[in-house]
Amino acid sequence: MIEFGVATAYGTMKRVLMHRPGEELQKVTDDTLEEFHFQRPVKKEKFLADYNGMLELFQSHGVETVLLTDVLKSDDDAMSYIRHRPNMTYTRDLASVFNSGAVLMGPHLKGRWGDQWIVGRALERLGVPILGSIDQPGFLEGGGVTLIGDDIAAASLCDRANEAGTRALRELIMGKDVKYFLEVPLPHGNVHIDGLFMVLDEKLCVIYEPMFDVFPCRLYEDGNSSFRNVMFRELLDERGFDCIATNHQEREMGLLNIVVTKRSERAIGFAGAARIGEEMAKYGIGLESFSADEMWQGNGGAHCMTCPFLLG
Questions:
Q1: 10 Å Cβ neighbour count for 200?
Q2: Is 272 helix (H, G, I), strand (E, B) or coil?
Q3: Contact in structure between 178 and 151 (CB atoms under 8 Å)
Q4: What residues form DSSP beta bridges with 86?
């Protein structure tokens, strides 16, 4: 029985690695906000209430939610480490799973250095092979990586990633898991591509367009030593994508943070994403939402908090 494999960003989610935070949230103080990238210290019980609502919603969609601490409960070193790492709940940033295995990411913030190795321990226990890792001086986080169709991996050059990081990922997966690799430079101030762009179906995405009008991207093809310069929207047009455009306010509120749970049918996102949900409904995809006012103080949502490792 196949227990892992991710070929697209829009398949039916079968198994996902998540972490329900605990006492580590108390490590976020006024003095450590920058280290851990929170907007303010959070109210633990309210944060957990938001998280539980999200978790239950995934489970109601038939997703097997595998919790990090359940997998590692017999690993005393890992459990002790987690109690000091409030960003561990953002599991997507720490690993990207493909059909052949997982690549451990290289977090940029010092407050996250080493977190990827804990997620790597869990994935190995779950039977997911580790293909390699993004090591310094390379930086790349999973929120900066996505799949476009089933043959392009896209990785953004942003505030949390550099060319050494994107190159390392390209060398690990191109020709094995994907035919093409798209390097997407983003203007200063953008943390990850998933705050600006999300694939919802084979030919459907949600996008904040202005950030992709600035720099050309580099499209690499397996077997070709060179690359092609292409604007991001031009590539989407070549691929026949329909794009749901979002506005500045929706981007600032994190409303592009959407996770597909059942291909072409269901997805999960923030409660404030009603307009985006109405646009998705025109394509037959229902967006179910959860309250996340406190959760958003950690600058992440459902997409950030899920590391899918089996999609159907």
A1: 25
A2: coil
A3: yes
A4: none
Burial 102-127 (b: 16+ CB within 10 A, else e): bbbbbbbbebbeebbebbbbbbeebe
β-bridge pairing 130-133 and 102-104? parallel
Instruction: Please state, in angstroms and rounded to a whole number, the distance separating the CA atoms of residues 41 and 295.
Output: 11
Domain locations along the chain: 13-311
pTM of the model: 0.97
DSSP letter at 158 equals: S
Superfamily name and number for 13-311: L-arginine/glycine Amidinotransferase; Chain A (3.75.10.10)
Peptide linkage before 185 cis (omega within 30 of 0):
no
What average pLDDT score do residues 184-207 get? 97
DSSP 25: G
pLDDT tens, 54-86?
A: 999 999 999 999 999 999 999 999 999 999 999
User: Tokens standing for 72?
Assistant: 């590692």
Rounded-to-integer distance, Cα 53 and Cα 223, Å: 46
Sign of the CA dihedral running 295, 299, 300, 304: negative
* Neighbouring C-beta atoms of residue 46, cutoff 10 Å: 14
Residue 2 has pLDDT above 80, yes or no: no
| Cβ 252 vs Cβ 263: under 8 Å | no
Q: What is the pLDDT of residues 231-254, one digit of tens each?
A: 999 999 999 999 999 999 999 999
How far, CA to CA in Å, does 235 sit from each of 25, 40, 166? 41, 38, 19
H or E element in which residue 130 lies: strand 130-133
Beta strands 145-148; 197-201: pairing state: unpaired
Neighbours of 73 (CB within 10 A): 11
